[in-house]
Amino acid sequence: MNDSNSSIVFVACVAFRGSEDLLSPEGRKDIEDTCALALLLEEIFFWVSVVLGVPGNLVAAVTILSLKLTPATFYLVLLAFGDFISLVFTILTKFFKDYSVITTEDVSHDWFYNLHHYAGTYANWTLVLICLERLAIILDPFRKTVNLTLRHAYMTAAVLCVALTGAYVLVSEMESYGSKTWIIVYTTCYNFIPLPVVFITSGVIAIELRRGLKRRGFMSEIQVRQIARQDNAMTVIMLTASFAFAVLTTPLCIVMLLFLIQSYTWLSPHHFPSADFFLALRVSIGLSQLTHGVNVYLYFVSVKRFREQFVYLFSCKTILKPTSQVFSTQT
């Protein structure tokens, strides 16, 4: 690292308000190396999520749209588009930041960066909707067509959009981007609420699946098999996406809790903890960004029917009739 870049990384990572001269040369170099490693890992996570996620989410959306449109497939398409838009805003954010297209002095700065975070938050809440939809169907499989219709799915997605928009508009008007209040609102919407909801619904679904055969014991074998195939395909998708979401976003939850409880920042007289916090923060943000890029590959690995539909669709063969798809939630 040259002296210019080293100085920039040092000041950006630990702005000690004039106390950096108190560090020994060895201590300064250790902190610079920690900060440089944090920025390198963040760059790697960024490109991995973009390279995997931008084409992957488009492929997932096209593949799922070739199936019969149901509440389940609608939510999956919404998730794919939400992840795609989040990654697009991530690319734009990096471009604007690297080339100073939008600076902190610009009026549009806070609004643009809030929009970037809003896209990722909406995608995470779409996963929450998928989990709740799966839970409702597994708890009450015989009333799917009555309680869970496309109209309900559209209304739920619209209400979610309005609620999150209202929260972000309110915090944008009241607080500056990056303030502690803003961080609390953002992490609550992005992580602190979706993560436990996903954990709880996934656990309840896993328990209910074990009881499923008892509830369906009075049905014919053909009916049981048909409903089981339909439910299991969507449930496997939901559980794999939920598992990835939990694994990749839990570190960010922990880091942000430390920030809120311990008030760790890189504006601290404690030099090395600040550098370590900076490293943990950049890595956890990079991991959470991966959640928007890996879903299609989880679908491909975990669900045979998705693989078959993908092969039929992109090998220019005849697409199987939508009415026979196991992604349908109709009985």
List the helices and strands and how they pair.
Elements: H1 3-13, H2 25-65, H3 71-98, H4 109-139, H5 144-147, H6 150-174, H7 180-192, H8 194-215, H9 221-262, H10 271-290, H11 295-302, H12 304-314
How does this structure look, described?
Its main location: membrane. InterPro entries: GPCR_Rhodpsn, GPCR_Rhodpsn_7TM. Keywords: G-protein coupled receptor, Membrane, Receptor, Transducer, Transmembrane, Transmembrane helix. It is a multi-pass membrane protein. It is found in: Membrane. This protein has 331 residues and is mainly alpha-helical. The chain has one domain: Rhopdopsin 7-helix transmembrane proteins (Up-down Bundle). Helix content is 77%, strand content 0%. Helix 4 runs parallel beside helix 8 and helix 6 packs antiparallel against helix 7. The longest helix is centred in the last third of the chain and has 42 residues. It is globular. The N terminus and C terminus are likely disordered.
